[in-house]
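Report of the visiting student (M.T.), summer placement. My assignment was to run the structure pipeline on a short list of targets and document each run. The first record concerns Fructose-1,6-bisphosphatase class 1.
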Amino acid sequence: MHIGTTLTNYIIETQRQIQGATGEFTGLLNDIAVACKKISDLVNKGDLIGVLGSAGSENVQGETQKKLDVITNEVFIEALAHNGHVAGLASEEMDEIYQLPADAPRGHYLVLFDPLDGSSNIDVNVSVGTIFSIIKAPPGVTQPTTEDFLKPGAEQCAAGYCLYGPSTMMVFATRDRGAQMFTLDKDFGEFLLTHENVQIPEDTSEFAINASNSRFWEPPVKRYVDECLAGKEGPRGKDFNMRWVASMVAEVHRILTRGGVFMYPLDEKLKAKDQGGKLRLMYEANPMSLIIEQAGGASSTGRERILTMQPEGIHQRVPVVLGSKNEVERLISYHLD
Ligand code: AHM
Ligand code: MG
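After the run finished, the structure tokens were exported:
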């Protein structure tokens, strides 16, 4: 595919190679792109249109919702619920799965999404993103149950994110066709292909972790970070750089672009709150893991591959270690020691 082709053309072209493709998946991707363009516009206008700040409500996970968490959730539903491409939706911002209106046409896909990830960054004008995961609905289902959504990440048909940074970019991966990067040309109103088959370098000397949690880390994580911090004189024999944007989409994007390892591990603080991790399996860990693996990287909880985990709950949280393959494997080996 040539650089500069539109996202729609890219999907049409790749779908054409799949026997029996009906155009429904192309339509769904188009709906998602429309939602992301709207969100990009809202995030961009920010204070000018009064969308910054808190909404004064909490989501199911007890986190304070930002106005934009609520608005972008509605934008996503509005763009997907009426076009006959999905049978149901689930969002990080909604307690229960979303059932389509009775008169809405039904499609064959289920979409799980985090409409605005990293929302603690909105008010300070730092990059945020939207993350989405697409799975097949069970045949004939028009009123999906929560169980219908609880599929291991390896069964995702596709996953992607949209990064609202200095430019707006969409990264999209299917199960067997690699990860592609598109950049929104705002004048033209389209996402254009800017990097094809993105590949993450296997080695890196950059890691990302919220170091303020270091006193709560488990020994394997502490060992890994200590060895990185020891630099040239330490066991790794080289200096490491560190980054923490507190916006998973921005961290994953950096890793896809220049390599690195990202960690939000399980720690004593999370355990004390009875949480299995900070990040959500269905809206964050699974879609990002598909993208990372399709780009030649690895993704694990530290103890098991994320994509083969059997989900237990729609809002389940898991530890996440992802990025350059050799570093992730090193972290896994420390967890097994
Ligand atoms: P959110 O979905 O409520 O925005 O939380 C997810 C975000 C991730 O993007 C980021 O990696 C992490 O939370 C940052 O957490 P912390 O503030 O603990 O560093
Ligand atoms: Mg999130």
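The pocket of AHM (ligand 1) is lined by residues 63, 92, 114, 117-120, 210, 246-248, 264, 278 (CB under 6 Å). The CA atoms of residues 109 and 136 lie 5 Å apart. I thank the supervising group for their guidance throughout the placement.
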